[in-house]
Design brief:
Layout lengths: L3 H15 L9 E3 L8 E3 L1 H9 L3 H11 L6 E7 L3 E6 L1 H13 L13 E5 L14 H16 L3 E5 L7 H13 L22 H17 L1 H16 L2 H24 L17 H10 L3 E4 L2 E4 L13 E4 L7 H16 L3 E7 L3 H13 L8 E7 L2 E2 L16 H19 L5 H21 L7 E2 L2 H4 L7 H20 L15 H11 L1 H10 L3 H21 L8 H25 L8
Parallel strand pairs: 5-6, 5-10, 10-11, 12-13
Antiparallel strand pairs: 1-2, 2-4, 3-4, 7-8, 8-9
Helix pairs in contact: 1-3, 2-3, 4-17, 6-7, 6-8, 7-8, 8-9, 11-12, 13-14, 16-19, 16-20, 17-19, 18-19, 19-20
The structure holds arginine (ARG).
The site of arginine has 8 residues, from strand 10.
Length: about 600
């Protein structure tokens, strides 16, 4: 379907052309003065110079040409030359009725869908998930869903940190505790045991212990770095132990992400890039792109136009070890060859901006991507506590994701039990989880990704204001009205929306009509916060209409059916929006 605002602009352009002016002056925007009009056009002012005419005269002439318009009920002229527009109720009605029966509410699919890879999540294996991993997961999941909804072929890849020093640290801590383990016997030739030498709980304790020891004991740290190189080189015992760490950690990690309603298509990690590294490095050397510097292999990436210092990108350390940039480059190669990526979108916090700048430049210089391939890093800010400082536990440690979720669910549970006494404990707990996730995700996504934001549990879990629970509350409210309507023996007609009888009803329809433009914009800008802003406006429009209208007691059945149809469309749009944000609504709350 054509976009609502485009249809309105087209009509205005027709008016300008009919009056003998450049049609392009007819661009229409939302009204700056909702008290005066619904839409406005400032083209008369813009054209005054070219035509040496007072804008007021131009506006009057254009208005005169739009008297027969099927779209405008009113074309008002206001000094110095504004065109103030009100839409015909019938035009709005027809548009929303068509939306109701169009796939994706009239959102047009791209002629050429793109292959998009979203690299998000980025958990580090064997380290507990902490709040720092929340934002990439939540924002990435939403961007993936938005792009997919808009018709692109999207692959979400968790790109685990499965190759870093944490793995070496764990090996060395284990060696210290159980030196007799066969993994550490260099002469061992046999099969390694099937059983892992630790449980997931033990692993959760081993890593922090090792990390602490490394800070205190340089020799231990050195040994851990060596172990990391051994893992990367595939030394038998270390490789086997690495596989055990992966086998124990992955199911746990998968559960954690599933609890957040986050699903990856690919569970690849940095280590998967390993086989591609040697050839890539050889090519970089052969082409002269990579050169030695202090024993290490680097690629220069600075450009003349740079205003700040961009250091060379490190490809191999002097001991031959691959680095974070190396695995990212090899992964790009993989994604180009196997996923034919047109765009790769990375979610990683602001502090990694330099890393991605370097990686992207090397990738282009080395021809790993096509000139038109888009490489995008979406840098996001930190989630801070109410005091404006990064989120910590009460005793100052890094807040683990699990405890954050527990806190939210507890608060949600309390609020739900407070307002729904009749709900069973079990249902309340289940509902608290669903609503709690909306609080967390909406609280995050409603901010522009690049900004820091304050995690305020009271505000996020509130049923009022710009929050996830408020949106869900609105959805549940509609579900309940539709349910009661059905109980009265009626069926819901999908396309029975009638001409609006008042401004609140019309306003709701106009909000709905903005859906396709909003979604397209959210996709183009990779901006979930645009979906949130739309949701909030739509929920407000719905609630204002609802408070003003007695729907279930209305005696005129056609009128009532029209309203129900409008509510049902609103519900479907709201639900589609929360789905792309990555949460869902309960049946009641
Ligand atoms: N594991 C990384 C971290 O915790 C994030 C990975 C981001 N993705 C990437 N391709 N580098 O910082």
């Amino acid at each position: 379907m054509k976009k609502f605002l485009d249809l309105i602009s087209e009509e205005m352009k027709r008016g300008f052309a009919a009056a003998g002016y450049d049609a392009n002056l007819g661009r229409v925007t939302a009204s700056n003065r909702p008290d005066l009009c619904e839409y406005q056009c400032n083209g008369a002012m813009a054209g005054a110079k070219t035509y040496h005419k007072a804008p007021l005269i131009i506006a009057q002439e254009v208005a005169g040409c739009l008297k027969d318009s099927g779209i405008f009920a009113q074309v008002g002229v206001a000094a110095p030359g504004f065109l103030n527009l009100k839409l015909k109720e019938s035009f709005v009605r027809d548009y929303v009725n068509e939306m109701a029966c169009s796939p994706k509410f009239g959102l047009e699919m791209p002629e050429k869908p793109r292959n998009i890879v979203v690299d998000y999540g980025g958990a580090n294996v064997a380290k507990p998930l902490h709040v720092g991993h929340l934002r990439p997961a939540i924002i990435g999941e939403s961007i993936k869903r938005i792009c997919r909804y808009c018709g692109h072929t999207v692959t979400g890849d968790v790109h685990l940190g499965d190759w870093g020093t944490q793995m070496g640290l764990i090996c060395m801590e284990l060696k210290r505790r159980q030196p007799e383990l066969v993994y550490f016997d260099e002469d061992y030739q046999g099969e390694y045991p099937q059983e892992p030498p630790f449980t997931v709980e033990q692993l959760g304790e081993i890593y922090p212990a090792a990390s602490k020891r490394a800070k205190e004991d340089p020799a231990f740290k050195e040994a851990a770095l060596e172990a990391t190189v051994k893992i990367q080189k595939g030394v038998r015992g270390y490789d086997a132990l690495w596989k055990q760490i992966m086998a124990v950690s992955l199911p746990d990690l998968k559960r954690n992400y599933a609890d957040l309603n986050i699903e990856f298509d690919l569970w690849k990690g940095e280590s998967d890039a390993k086989p591609l590294i040697p050839e890539m490095v050889e090519e970089m050397k052969a082409s002269g792109l990579a050169h030695e510097s202090d024993g290490a292999l680097v690629v220069d990436v600075k450009e003349e136009t740079d205003t700040k210092e961009i250091p060379p990108c490190l490809i191999l350390k002097s001991d031959g070890a691959a680095l974070y940039a190396t695995t990212d480059l090899a992964t790009i190669k993989d994604r180009m060859e196997n996923l034919h990526a047109d765009a790769i979108i990375y979610l990683a916090d602001k502090r990694q901006e330099m890393h991605f700048l370097q990686v992207f430049r090397v990738a282009r210089k080395a021809g790993l991507v096509k000139p038109q391939t888009q490489l995008v890093h979406i840098p996001f800010g930190t989630m801070n506590a109410k005091d404006g400082k990064p989120f910590k536990t009460r005793d100052g440690g890094v807040m683990q994701l699990k405890s954050l979720l527990e806190d939210i669910n507890e608060e949600m549970y309390r609020k739900i039990v407070e307002s729904r006494h009749e709900m069973s404990q079990e249902e309340a707990a289940g509902t608290a989880k669903v609503v709690g996730l909306s609080a967390l995700k909406y609280g995050d996504l409603s901010n522009q990704a690049g900004k820091d934001y304050i995690f305020d549990i009271d505000r996020f879990t509130s049923f009022e204001g710009d929050t996830g629970p408020y949106i869900l509350y609105t959805i549940v409210r509609i579900k309940s009205i539709l349910g009661r309507y059905r109980e009265l023996g009626h069926e819901i007609a999908p396309q029975a929306i009638r001409e609006a009888e008042n401004d609140l009803e019309k306003d709701l329809m106009m909000q709905l009509a903005g859906f396709n433009a909003m979604m397209e914009g959210a996709c183009a800008d990779l901006a979930p916060h645009k979906v949130c802003a739309y949701l909030y406006d739509l929920a407000n429009a719905l609630n204002r209409f609802y408070h003003d209208t007695r729907i279930l007691t209305e005696e005129n059945e056609k009128k009532q059916a029209g309203w129900i149809s409008l509510l049902s469309l609103t519900l479907r749009v709201l639900e589609s929006c929360i789905d792309v944000l990555g949460f869902s609504a309960p049946e009641r709350m």
